[in-house]
Amino acid sequence: MRRLNIVLAFICFIAMVAGCSVGGAGKTLTAAQVLDAFSRSGFELSEAKELHPDSVFKKELNGVKPDTYLVGGSQLLSIYVYESSRGPAKGIKDFERQTAAADVTSYDLYFVANILHFYVTDVSDRDERVARAVEGLRMSMEKQEEWLTKEIESITLTCQPNFGKKPCENRKFADSSAVERFRQAVHRAEKMPGMLNYVAEYLMTVTFHDLTKRDFHLSLGTDRNQSGLLVPLFDTTQGYEIPVEEANRLRELLGEDGI
């Protein structure tokens, strides 16, 4: 009966988190984004160094081994990072197959996009911040989709003092041709792997047609052979590379083409 309750809880949670595949097959989260979401929820995870190597929550599932952490110093959290959002469903089936004859301790099971979480806890000891962290990941995916697809009304650039460049001027663009250049740059920007180490040139505020706003860090420089960098402030662990061609069109618009 305990195992049945776990499965039902899993189905209900997936239904709540956007119908079994948050974000679709093409959208993924990184391990750094997961850890950042837990940090924003109020606690840091510590590495589970003494976990028994034969633990069912350390098993390879669907070809992926987990990163294991302790929540509150004692509760186990196993995180599987797959290449696509199809990975967790296959990982769950693999887990069920490997533990079919085992007496598995109580756990909560979550997935968002390509991330699968096992949170080993009793109901009475459950830390609700884990659920909040997962919800934060879901919201991050929704916001990512929003800023990539919504129509832009205007762009405001605010100079950042630590970039170390020539004197900078705050700018606002509302005419259709200028907004289109920024729109193309945003839509063609590609997700970058790994951790970021950057200095922001501008704070870019995008105002959409529905008057909602999103803030980003934008860095272009003057080198016409270099791509640009766009970082959404709702998730500063994830950068987007602006192709050289689009970065140069923005440099020309700003009068910073290096010529």
Structure description:
The chain folds into 2 domains: 141 residues, no CATH class; 105 residues, Sandwich (Immunoglobulin-like). The chain starts with a helix and ends in a 5-residue tail after the last helix. The chain is an alpha+beta fold and 259 residues long. The chain is built from 6 helices and 12 strands.
Keywords:
259 residues, alpha+beta, Immunoglobulin-like, 6 helices, 12 strands
List the helices and strands and how they pair.
Blueprint: H1 2-16, H2 31-40, E1 46-47, E2 67-71, E3 75-81, H3 87-98, E4 107-112, E5 115-120, H4 128-149, E6 152-159, E7 171-173, H5 176-188, E8 190-191, E9 202-208, E10 213-219, E11 228-232, E12 240-242, H6 244-254
Antiparallel strand pairs: 1-2, 2-3, 3-5, 4-5, 6-7, 6-9, 8-12, 9-10, 10-11, 11-12
Helix pairs in contact: 2-4, 5-6
Largest sheet: 7 strands, antiparallel
- Shape, per Cα inertia axes: elongated
- Structural class of the helix and strand makeup? alpha+beta
Q: Determine Rg (CA atoms, Å).
A: 22 Å
- If helices are DSSP runs of H or I spanning 4 or more residues, what is the number of helices? 6
Order of helices and strands: HHEEEHEEHEEHEEEEEH
Terminal-residue CA separation: 72 Å
Low-confidence stretches: 1-25
Mean pLDDT: 81
Report strand order across the widest sheet. Answer: 7-6-9-10-11-12-8
Percentage of residues assigned to helices: 25-40%
What is the total tally of β strands? 12
User: How many domains, in number, for the residues?
Assistant: 2
- Strand percentage: 15-25%
